[in-house]
Amino acid sequence: MAADIEYDRYDRIRPIRWTGTALELLDQRQLPFTVEYLSCSSSDDVAAAIHALAVRGAPAIGIAAAWGAVLAARDVDAGDGATAAAEIESALQRLNAARPTAVNLAWALARMRRALAGAGSDWREVLEREARAIETEDLAANRRMGEMGASLIAAGSGVLTHCNTGSLATAGFGTALGVIRAGVAQGRIDKVFAGETRPWMQGSRLTVWELQQDGIDATLIADAAASHLMKSGQVDWVVVGADRICANGDVANKIGTYQLAITARHHGKKFMVAAPSSTVDMDTASGDLIEIEERDPGELLGVSGSRTVAEGIQAWNPVFDVTPAELIDAIVTEKGIVERPDAERMKAVFGA
Ligand code: MRU
After folding, report:
1. How many domains does the chain have?
2. Cα separations (Å) of 79 from 22, 63, 87, 114?
3. 202 lines ligand 1 (CB under 6 A)
4. One GO biological process from the UniProt record (predicted)?
5. Model's pTM, two decimal places?
């Protein structure tokens, strides 16, 4: 199946570029009208970029943090990895604190720590190699998941996606959007709908732009139109990504995912979560233990920087929610597909 997918056509955007001395991030705050890379020359620059959503999406923030660790070590003078690790620990903690919900951030930093701990005098090369490996493994996982997820979708299907889970959110190709790319390339998906994903508008600013780069037609809907769309019969699958998948199969993802899962079940539509195994957190038993990021209510009080809400109005802005495992038909990872996830089926694929 992989041979069917022309990756040159379907995988061209790269949100993260390592120059050898700096990390360049495609500044997602400025898309779709300005395509500009933000240069980070320190780990604190990277932490600030992650917090401000210049780089976003669970896998992408893990990869950026890994390169941030390389930057943190740039001026460190140490004879071995363990000494270097101690020197950069506070910088790693600042990277880790940039956003709380996506486990990929802590996962990538834990990998960087482990690589350093075992390294000798060549620790600098080891650290850089590990960051590169995290990035290339993510791309390979996405391409694999794309095929695996698409294989569940029958020819002639319509899909709805949420947030942005594409190349912009990963090392490339995307998770849920990778499934959609593969499904379109293989002729399984005829119709793609994307929700605008208020309040940050990842769907309208990023997802439909990404698909346009590939020549894939996508139809934007208001988030509030999802139930009506499902009732109209134009959608067979809802396909989304994840920020953290718990040991019992509960999934944290962009706010609004939970209500999509509820309405999909009500209308007899299938619900798929596609994510690399770096998003699986077998140490968190269930979704109620996940810290849900709450961002500045100001994100809700206006559109594109212009205030649309009367002064003095309060807003609450949780930016993720948890979809319970029982509403999910399939969790697709590069390690395997967990259908109708629960603790036992998760353990069978991901171990204890
Ligand atoms: O706040 P964001 O834009 O970082 O949220 C992103 C999402 O919720 C994505 O769906 C998730 O990270 C998966 S991206 C492959």
Report:
1. 2
2. 23, 26, 12, 17
3. yes
4. L-methionine salvage from methylthioadenosine
5. 0.96
